[in-house]
Amino acid sequence: MILNIAEICPATHTLGPGQRFVIWVQGCCFNCPGCISPNWIPQKQATLVDPLKLANYILSIPGTEGLTVSGGEPMLQAPALNQLFTYLRQRSNFSIICFSGFTLEQLHAKCDPAINQVLSLIDVLIDGQYMSELNDNKGTRGSSNQIVHFLSGRHASEANLFTERKRDVEIHMRDDSALMVGVPPINFPEHFKKAVNFTTPKVSSTN
Ligand code: SF4
Question: Which of 73, 123, 183, 188 is deepest in the core (most CB within 10 A)?
């Protein structure tokens, strides 16, 4: 069993309650206009990982309170996610949040044992495709058509966080790149570019 992942973030506070590990899977069967991660739509090989090794890595990160899985389309890799979630459930009290372009109704209609098992292990499912015209600039979902399902009830008292909270993002610097983590506010790219241009010191040459 192998998980094909596009990216990970070991610790963030932008995609659900508490400190969370985030996995973005590679490959999506949808093509939503305005998708913020178009590079992760192609169903191609990215980084292949053993779910159990990844679970052990997640468990080794101090302070982790939960896991959020996005993409890409997580449900295309339900068997590997099932293995990952089952292992984590046996060894931790992490909460698990998962995004999917499929609605919960569509997922149930598939009658797929692996998907059903994944759903039974998730605390919160944020479902439905992103629709830019319904982006209300609020919460941990991209657009208001997406429904936040509190499948376990664990985070039900924190509903505002998912649907009403003012959005923020974290920028994680890498050796050769930067990773944006979170659901960005509308016009974030333009505002970010302006902020960077404003704060970047001018370098002059004397030669
Ligand atoms: S379902 Fe998500 S990852 Fe897939 S195209 Fe839509 S917004 Fe992008």
Answer: 183
pTM > 0.90: yes or no: yes
Q: Is 72 in the pocket of ligand 1 (CB under 6 A)?
A: yes
DSSP assignments along the chain, one per residue: --EEEEEEEEEESSSSSSSEEEEEES--S---TT-S-GGG-S-S--EEE-HHHHHHHHHHSTT--EEEEESS-GGGGHHHHHHHHHHHHHH---EEEEEESS-HHHHHHTT-HHHHHHHHH-SEEEES---GGG--SBTTSSSTTSEEEESSSTTGGGHHHHHTSBP--EEEE-SS-EEEES-PPTTHHHHHHHHHHHHSPP-----
Fold topology of 3-199: TIM Barrel (3.20.20)
Q: Which atom of ligand 1 is nearest to the CA of 99?
A: 2
pLDDT, position 197: 77
By alpha-carbon position, which residue is closest to atom 8 of ligand 1? 35
Spacing, Cα 196 to ligand 1 middle (Å): 28
Range in 40-49, 69-78, 192-201 the model is least confident about: 192-201
- Report whether residue 101 contacts ligand 1, using a CB cutoff of 6 Å: yes
Domains of the chain, by residue range, sit at 3-199
